[in-house]
Amino acid sequence: MIATLRSEWVKFRSVRGWMACLLLVPFLTVLLGYLTASGSMCGNGPFPGQSVTLACSQPIGPGGEAVEDQFYFVHQTLTGNGTLTARLTGLSSAKLQPWAKAGIIVKASMTPGSAYAAVLGTGGNGVRFQYDYTGDEAGLPGLSPHWLRLTRSGDVLTGYDSMDGVHWLSVGSTVLRGLPATVQVGLFAASPDPVSTGAVQAGTTPTVTGTFTNVTGVHAGSWTGTYVGAVGPLAAGDSGFQQAGSTYQVTGRGDIAPAVAPQAAITPIGQTLTGAFAGLIAAIVLGTLFITSEYRRGLIWLTLAASPARGRVLAAKALVTGAVTFVAALAGVAIALPLGKHLLHENGNFFGPLSMATELRVAIGTAAVFAITAVLALAIGTIVKQGATAVMTVIVAIVLPYLLAVASPVLPAAAADWLLRLTPAAGFSIQQTFQQYPQVASSYTPWNGYFPLAPWAGFAVLCGWALAGLALAGFLLNKRDA
């Protein structure tokens, strides 16, 4: 096997056309990635099905993530430790959203994106303890009335709920590092946008009104009402509060949650690698040429005569093709990814926090997708023996499903999901960086940057296709005349 592998490597590096095609892989990946990133000015809108471009600015939460922080807050200051208790007797809205919410909250400041913890009732998901936008823990099910309690002890915030105000259940607890000594505490209400694939229209977001009684643990008569995160003028009835004796009605709209695409201007890290599609086509051509050029010139007889074990020849070609393509693609990605991030950031795009492990997974995984795709192209070339036919077959199997599912919503969401589950295009899941949050209702579709499979699961689907192709290619290579 080693001798066969060495022979195929010597053959590969001796053909200038193959080497030139290999060099095109990183060149096109970097060049087209640079041109795309240079021209992307906050490239997040308008999204498919939307009539307006969304603003690029977004509040940033304590973890560096983009967040939604827009709600009506009836508040007063709290210095040091303390406890706030209230009975949420009802939620009302013209169209009550499942994640419409009202409750009690401790917030580090009035600045959007500042740290917070809240215990709240929702329109359809029971009582929740939520904190710092991404934290979410479930309490008692069902709609209000519920008793809610929030305590502060240093940096530790704990939420409780109760059905009777006597027997309390701890919903959750969190540590808000660096919480200032004086914080804002009080009642709030927020109602997020309804999930829709239609055009975004101003003034269509529903409001929610939370009714509270038995508010204790604060100074009576010292409330201030503020619409946190208000953008532009507010319509009449969008927000406010009324107090009648010991009863408070708080009306608001917006959300306190992690921001997700497409509502938020978040750029997927894969946008730095848009040039990879051109580089991928060069890899496909390379994989097919490595076998079909021998068929075309009649040299396959010499190859098989020198190495009668035909399966070994195919395996050696696959190893050489995959290895050289991986190295070339990794070189291109290693340049294109940081360069694209820099250019997109300079143009006002926001990526959100990405760990080093995530960036390495995207970079190495994308190079691996190139390599496996080239091996699949080699297998298809062995099966059909025709270079042009093999190239078109692989492009249709990988690039076309991706474009149909991701580039624009030409297919229903369910059909787009299945394309990215079953076809070789599932391999692009390796570039997934967007997270789906159960506490945020949104359009988690492929054209908004959400892949239906986990990164390595999608890559495994591509590998499965390549292995199946190699198995069929090996069978035909052994059964028919070369």
Description:
With 482 residues, the chain is of the alpha+beta class. The protein folds into 2 domains: 2-50 and 264-479, no CATH class; 67-255, Jelly Rolls (Sandwich), CATH 2.60.120. It is built from 9 helices and 16 strands. It has helices spanning 2-14, 16-38, 276-297, 300-306, 310-346, 356-384, 387-407, 413-422, 455-479, and strands at 67-69, 71-79, 82-92, 101-107, 116-122, 127-131, 135-138, 146-153, 156-162, 169-175, 182-190, 208-216, 224-228, 240-244, 247-252, 256-258. The protein has a 7-stranded antiparallel beta sheet with strand order 7-6-5-4-11-2-13, with no helix packed on it. A 7-stranded antiparallel beta sheet has the order 10-9-8-3-12-15-14, with no helix packed on it. The protein has a two-stranded antiparallel ribbon with strand order 1-16. A hairpin with a 6-residue loop joins strand 9 (156-162) and strand 10. Helix 1 (2-14) packs across helix 5 (310-346), helix 5 (310-346) packs across helix 6 (356-384) and helix 6 (356-384) runs antiparallel to helix 7 (387-407). The longest helix has 37 residues, at 310-346. The chain starts with a helix and ends with a helix.
